[in-house]
Design a protein that fits this description.
The complex is a heterodimer of chains A (162) and B (289). Chain A starts with a helix and ends with a helix. The longest helix of chain A is centred in the last third of the chain and has 26 residues. Chain A is built from seven helices and no strands. Chain A is globular, with a radius of gyration of 15 Å. In chain A, 78% of the residues lie in helices and 0% in strands. In chain A, helix 3 crosses helix 5, helix 5 packs antiparallel against helix 6 and helix 6 crosses helix 7. Chain B contains three helices and twelve strands. The radius of gyration of chain B is 25 Å and the shape is globular. Chain B has a domain of 159 residues: Rod shape-determining protein MreC, domain 1 (Thrombin, subunit H, Beta Barrel). Chain B has 289 residues and is an alpha+beta fold. Classes of the chains: A mainly alpha (162), B alpha+beta (289). At the A-B interface, helix 1, helix 4 and helix 5 of A face helix 1 and helix 2 of B.
Amino acid sequence: MIRDRASRRMPVIASFIFGLMLTIMPLPDAAAVFRPDWLALLVIFWTMQLPRTWSVGAAWIVGIVLDVSQGTLIGQHALALCCVAFVTVRLHLLMRVFPVPQLTATVFPILAIYQFLLFWINGVAGVGAPSVVYWGPVVSGTLMWPVVMIALSGLRYRTRSG
Amino acid sequence: MVASRGSSSNSGRIPALGLRVLGLIFISILLMYFDNRDNHLNTVRKSVGAAVYPLRVIVDAPVRFWGWLGETTASRNDFQLELARLRAERLLTNARLQKFNALEAENVRLRALLDARTQVRDKARVAEIMSVDANPYNHGLVIDVGTQDGVFDGQALVDVDGVVGQVIEAGLMTSQAMLISDTDHALPVEINRNGLRTIVVGSGKIDQLELPFVVNNADIRVGDLLITSGLGGAFPAGYPVAVVATITRIPQEPYAHVTATPAASLGQVREVMLIFSTGAHESDITADD
C-alpha cells in the first residue's frame, strides 16, 4: 500500500524536478525575462487535480527549493507559491469543470498574484524593482498553460499518479 | 477533466486549510526576516543547495557536451592556428613578466624605504562558470567550486582583464557570485593615474558601471583606468575594474555624472579566477596623500 502510494507520487515529483530544470536552464537575455514560472504552473495544475495530496505544504517546500536555487530571500517564493496553492484549492472544483479558455483566463490572475507577491516582497526587502518586463512571465505563463495542462494530464492518466 | 479514480477523496473541503496557509505564511515571513537581517540561514541554503547541485550539473551538461564536441572535432589546422596564437601571446606575456619581476623588486625596495608592509602576492584558483541562470534580474553567475574548495562568502572573482564580481553565497560544491554590474554591487576603487578614491556602482546594464560620488571639480578624465583600492576589505588592491567612458558635469549639482566600461567582458566570461587574498590589510598602508 505504501509502495503503491510512493509510486503514484513519483510522476508528480518528477514533473517538479523537470520544472526546476526548466527554471534554471540558461536562456538568452531577451528570452529569460519571458521565462514562464514553470513551478507556479505545476503547483496550479497538481493542486487543482489532487488538492488533498498536493496543496499548500508541498507548494511551500517547492518554493523553498526555488528560493535557494534562485538566490532570493528564503521564504519569498515559498510564500508566493503557498498563496497560489491556497487560491487554487479554493477554486479547484470550479476550475476542473472550466473549459480550457476559461481556465486559462483563471490562471492569468493567479499568476499575476504570484508575481505581485514576489514584487511586493522585493520592494519591502529593498531589492531593486525592475521595469515593466517584470510582468513578462505572467503573460508567457498564461500562454503556456494549455500546453502544460495537456502534457500533465497525459502524464497523470498514463501513470495514474496521485 | 474530472479525476476518474479517487475523485471523491481528492476533492471537497480540506481540513484546516486556512490555518495551514496562515502558519506557512508566518513561517515564510520569519524566514525572510532572518535571512534578510543576518545570514542565519546559511546552513539551510547550503543543504538545500547541495540537493539542487545534481540538477545544475544536468542542465549544464548539454552546453558542456557541445563545447567538448566542438573541441574534439576541430580540425588540425584550427589547433595549429590556436597554438601559434597562444605561443605569440605567451612570448608577449613572458616579456612583460620579466619587467614585472624587476618592478616588483623595485617596489619591495621602495616600500622598505618607506617602512611599509610588503605587498603579498595573491593566491588564485581557476573556477568554471556553469551555464545556469540564477535570476534574470540579478547580474549573477554560478561557479563550479564551493566551500570544499575553500571558497568563502565575499571572495573576489577576476578574469584576465579585470574584476568580475564576488561570491555572495558559497555552497558546498557550487557557489553563486554577483557581477560588479548588479545594481546592488558597490566597489571601492581609485583612479590609477592620480589615486583619487571613489566608488563604482553597478548600473544593471552588463557593459556599464556608474560612479555616483565624483565631485564636479574632481580630476577625472575619459579613459582613466579604475583599479580596486582595497578599501572595504573585500577586494585585494590593484586589480583593474573599469575604464571611464563618459563624464557629464552639471554645474548646479554636487556630483558629476560619470559612467565607466568594465575592464572584464562580463557577458562573455567562461572561466574566472578566485582570489585568496592576504592583502585586505593593504588599505592601511596607502595613507600617503
